[in-house]
Records
---
Amino acid sequence: MRMKGWALAAVTLCAAGMAWADTAAGQVRQCANVVEPRSVEYPWMSIERWHQLNRDKTALAAKGNVDVLFLGDSITEGWPKAEWDSHFGSYRAANFGIGGDHTGNVLWRLQNGGMDKLRPKVVVLLIGTNNFGLCGEAPEQVFHGISSVVASLRQLYPDAKILLNAVLPVESKPDHPRRSNVAKLNRDVARLDDGKDVLFRDYGPLFVQADGTISPAIMPDYLHLSEQGYRIWGNALRPDIARLLK
């Protein structure tokens, strides 16, 4: 499922409002390595809606014929069609992002969504921001969750290359503690790059202005991307994907 630009607004803006609520309230849920489907009802997505999206992805996986597999949360799910087609239309690419997913949800989907039917050549992975925002986890916990997802992908798709994205920066100001948590996580995640099968890329600086702030023209809610933001991401991803497909 791919939603275009502001067609995702109702989901993304509500999600942004919820995104850091658990952290602010000090409520921590164990998500990183807890292999589970969606277990929390949110105003922007019910548990049943999540299961329907997963059934849609399962049906997509059953068709196979995917060379480039995108996996992640709402940031991945939200690719505008025009930007998706412009950057990846020449590939056999499929979008397996589901809004609100944390690493435990992705681990469950890898085991239960019929994704063993796929044989991608490249997996583009971006996951982890909801471990902070919806689970209230610390960078160390999120790192273990991302490590588990990468390990699961290596086992499921041993011949695939993994383009491991750094978690994108959040919040407008560079000194915000949430931005610092993301930066700390990414320093750890960078160690998963093995120079062979897993390629780590931090595209985050492309979304940050010279003074360290993030423009709402790129991230309207300082979490999700605008069409301009997707264009920036696509321009960065495309040469790396092309290189990994060779």
Note: The first strand starts at residue 68 and ends at 72.
---
Amino acid sequence: MITRRSLALATAGVAIASTARAQGTWPEKPIRLIVGYPAGGPTDFGGRLLQDPLGRAWGQPIVIENRPGASQVIASEAVARSPADGYTIFLAASTHASNAAVYARLPYDTLADFTPIVNIYASPTVLFVGKDSPYQTVAQLVEAAKRDPGMAFASSGNGSSGHFALEIFRRKAGIEVTHVAFRGGAPALQEVVAGRVPATFSTLSGAIGLARDGSLRALAIGGPNRVEVLPAIPTMAEAGFEIPDTSPWYGFIGPKGLPRTIVERISRDVIAQLRDTTIARRILDTGGVIIAEGPDAFDARIRRELAENAVVAREAGIRVE
């Protein structure tokens, strides 16, 4: 006799078996890689770099879907609402760990609705001035800012990584500044190049061309170590203003409940690709730093940054409506 309980158990058994088969044979169809920023930027770069190598490793094409808007909130929501079957992956930037601190409401829970998979690489934040700036060191810039409270600093937008770096630096240096938020990194950098705004904190990957041609002068690296493409530039700590690492990162994240076997497969295969000298060289040449951080360490990083960003945003009054 078939009872309601036996039918429920049988249905559950079929579901478990189907999940097990899916995990064991993944991937069996193309994989959608959602990017929360337009094509051509530092986030998109990581996806394009790994698209073909991972496609060959997995025997399935990877289709990149750029869904820009609202500091990748639009893309994040799309991923949060996707099935946890490994066929939708989010190439997230580190604003994923700061949006909760600056937005009054989000259509998802940053921790509960996602599965961290692998942190791929980072692009150090760099303190830049224009080529004709009188400031040769961080100390000189700070001294000038103390003489002239309210000195303008540009950023790529309210709540951006550069904005957070500025607020952290401002408190460390004991200066008062005027934050000038632009709609993107390019216009912010151009204002500094033109000398209309004295300084900015920018991702190195977004400014590497201007740094190489001499349009921008780098004063210090916001990460913990010097970088290969600017070996003579000191870290903020070496310059006498030690601050937490403000380098934006770029990593793969899945919807909540993504099976651990798929998480580990993706993480393992991505890290293997990062050992390829051609891929590694392309990251380093654009000013990037290879992270290759697995799911557990990546999850810990996101949780730590969520807490840190909440404190900075609250103390600095950073809000995005």
Note: Residues 6-22 have pLDDT under 50 and may be disordered.
---
Amino acid sequence: MDNFARLLKESWTLVEQERVRLSDHFYARLFLLDPELRKLFPVQMAGQGDRLLEAIIAAIHTVDDPEGFDEFLRALGRDHRKYHVEAAHFDTMGVALLDALRSTAGDGWNLEYDQAWRDAYAAIAEKMLAGAAADGDPPFWHAEVLTHERHGPDTAVFTCRALQYPLSWKAGQYVSVEVPRHHPRVWRTYSVANAPNDDNVLEFHVRTPAEAAGWVSGALVRRVKPGDLLRVAAPMGSMTLDRSSERDILCVAGGVGLAPVKALVEELAGYNRARWVHVFYGARTEADLYGLDRLRELVAAHPWLSVTAACSDDPDFDGEQGDISDVVARYGPWTTHDCYVSGSAAMVRSTLRVLAADDVPPQHTRYDTFGNL
């Protein structure tokens, strides 16, 4: 396994700086091999290549962890049911992927790399198909929007109810969401912002990104209204509570990264009596701390919970000043805590550095990032 993982990671360095060319070649070859596959993808392909590459990178990073590799790919297989991917499609995608890798890598490619990727893709396809076959849930749920609240020009909090079938998730997990009325076949992931409940109601916090490709987020913030129908795919993610742990808990949230943290706190509210829970919630300005009132309600009801809010660019804010990672560092150390971090890639990186400096064991840290680390 060590040599296998080395070959995959080593060969990936030949193409990682040419991601656009790699994805363009992959899709061109894929649709040439099977033109019918084009119907499974959005009309506008911008951003689609990034999602392919993110999945490849994630698989590469877990290949030397057999348990994590297996779990990730089975979950990915369940998730891909929403795209109507069938078993026969995997062979075609494998041919297109190997062709794209060879072409993009150029003279640096060799037979060892080729065989390693053939073996890797065979394992990937097998595990994804097994995950899809073992899932008894539907490929996706239809969900009706119940409430929709705007918080400033670019943020919204909305709830929806899964129809027809119960949807089971764990606090801290995320789901893929499609807005079929506005952007059919385009899916984006969002953390569920509330703990599981018997009503099949899910809450989401969405912020429109600066880049133009944020079509789904833009529609969820500006165009969706109560009564609209969305599609929600199977829950994924491991930023969940360890109920067997007796350690106190640190949660760090930046912006709409509050969503999974709020869900974790709500789940803890149902059973926790002995663990102290410290939530640090940061944003640029006080107006961006849209969820602070709800957190304060939870603090008033639960003596084990504390919330510290901070603003990085609002000198009039009557609270902590500075980036949330710096504030967390001032309140440390956090060596004996279970730590949960959610927010932008930059915020998560800086917070993980703080926790590493406090010698928090990696197995006691879980995070969710919006963007690449």
Note: The chain is about 40% helix and 20% strand.
---
Amino acid sequence: MPSEHETVGAYALGILDDAEATAFEAHLAGCEWCAQQLDELAGMEPMLAALADLPGSGSTPSIGDSLSAKPTPRLVERLVDEVAEKRAQKRRRSFYMIAAAAALIIAGPLAAIAANSGGSSGGGQVTASSAQTAFSAMADKQSATDASSGASATIGTEQKDWGTQAVLELKNVKGPLKCSLVAVAKNGQRVTMSSWSVPNWGYGIPDAQTEESKKPLYIGGATAFKPNEIDHFEVVTFDGKKLVQVNA
């Protein structure tokens, strides 16, 4: 490998002198490999500051020094490895979410299915209540009603190899609203499992004038978290209002 290729990590950290940086930039203009590596290593300077206190890092420049002192080649190598691992973790998370979506497609259109007939909403009608059928078959269900909003939710969950499949039964919610089902993990991380619109006539309204309004909404979602990693679920509007919370 040409020596210029080995310089990309140091260039990303901004630790080359003017002559070295100029030489590398001339090489970079015609090297697709280095351009790709430089893109992968973008944002390394904040990581350098974060790793400054690692054992064995040697004399590492402080943030205030603006990298005026060069880190050792060993530290540069460790930083590059750290970025590679972070990128790999991101790719793995993306893979899990794609797997979850694929599983929902195979199992049936759970990700955005209302089990009512649609009424005045127009468009295609749901003829097979796949989400409701999946909900009925789920043994693990938890329910809650919010005293403020009046919304009532029951969430069925089922563990999968890739994480958790869930189906929400939502009642006593009037529109127009745009809502999301959010899983909140025990570590505090929040993941949106699905989203939908609530029409004017609403879902699961007990004293509604039409049959469509009386029927609950059944909608599926998925997350890479396992059931034992989830603390609770929230139904929230797009403007941040929590309609109801259900413990896992």
Note: The radius of gyration is 26 Å.
